[in-house]
Known about the structure:
By secondary structure, this protein is mainly alpha-helical. The protein has 21 helices and no strands. The protein has helices at residues 8-30, 63-93, 105-110, 116-126, 139-151, 155-182, 185-197, 210-225, 229-240, 250-260, 266-272, 276-279, 283-293, 295-311, 316-323, 332-345, 351-372, 379-393, 408-411, 416-428, 430-452.
Amino acid sequence: MAERRLTPGWRAPLLSLRMMGGSVLDRLRLAPAPAIPEVAPRESAQAPQVTRPLQIERPTLRWRAIVLQAGALWLVTRIAFVVLTYFGVLLIQRGTPTGSLPIGPHEMLNDWKHWDVIWYINIASMGYWRPEASAFFPLYPLLIKGATLFFGQHWLFAAMVVSNLGTLAAFIGLALWASQDDFSPAIGVSTVRMVAAYPYALFLFAGYSDSLFLALVAFTFFFLRRASWRWAIVCGVLAGLERPTAFALVLPMLWEYGRQHGWWDRARWERLTHAWRRAVPGLRELAQGALVAGAVPIGFAFYGAFLLWRFGHPKIFLFEERIYWHHTFMNPVQSLVAIVGQIVSTPMWTHWQAHQLLDFVPVAAFAVLTVVLARRMPLAYTLYMVVVLLLSICSPITEGRPDLLTSAGRYMLAALPIFLQLGRWAHRYAWLDMLLVSTGFMVQAVLTVAFLRGDWII
């Protein structure tokens, strides 16, 4: 057939359409992809079809700029901690009686060796030498052990290097996650600033495992929202090897995977009654979903297998939490009644009242925000926050300290969905940003000096 030639009158409109199409494509390449829908679109109910995963367009992130901004915040806060350590040790801890005696950097570094830091260093250097140490999960001590290959037998320095690198990873993961959810790098930076200013963020500098856990949680949600299931599984398994509170990730991971694959679509299950064989998802999808939901339990299983070999029982850490560390399980109502009663009965303007408020106020504030934001946050975030709050409230320390919520304020560092919302508000309202940042850093400085003195603040 002869090729059809276009008359000159057709060429101008076609050329115009081609130029318009090229312009639109250029804009689409530069514009960020639409956000991941929270609710899966329903399919037509006319004929039963095999449900396929939602076609998620991964948002385009200016990841280099985000990483640089998060890294800059990390560097600035690390410098601030070094300066605070210098003046806190020389002016407050040692004071005027020893004002003429020099104190070197090595001695200043040793002032960070208190409480859980000693346990982590002993596990890294000697292994799990006693059952009580099983309450500390193995990933962080293993990384400390690995860091000594570069720094020699300087265990405290290695622990702080690992902790601060974990903080860098946490800042980057949180900034990427927040920027992805809001399509705004500014929101990501604001969210990181909220975490950095949280009073208990001093434990992101000390030799604690909190920073590593935050990094794993942030990257887990980041990969979940991008439908990068393999990386989400890796982060979930590592989180299960890091802390028992990683259990809070199980339901969000299952929900997010099912949401993006249409598992919770009502129309799908209505069709299931008519054509169940054609509506059931493929084995590959089910297997992948099982791995996503079971990632954290897989990490627990690895640790349990080690404890079975080492101490003869896979759940010995739960027994030690109750017997040695005095964490007693209570139902939420009973625990809240005991906590409020303890706060009311504590004399006003006392040392222990301040301790109780440092733990109770963050838990109460984050619980209220979780309820208020339940309809605005993705359900995966709400599920995560509910479990985090329940784990903090339902396992109070009933002996040894007149503070049932001991360490609960520090555990709220992991409440990253709430920090994400605070970052949004702080970006919108300058006065709120100033209030949270200035107050947070001032209280954080007080707690840091108390920690350097060896005082109990957790």
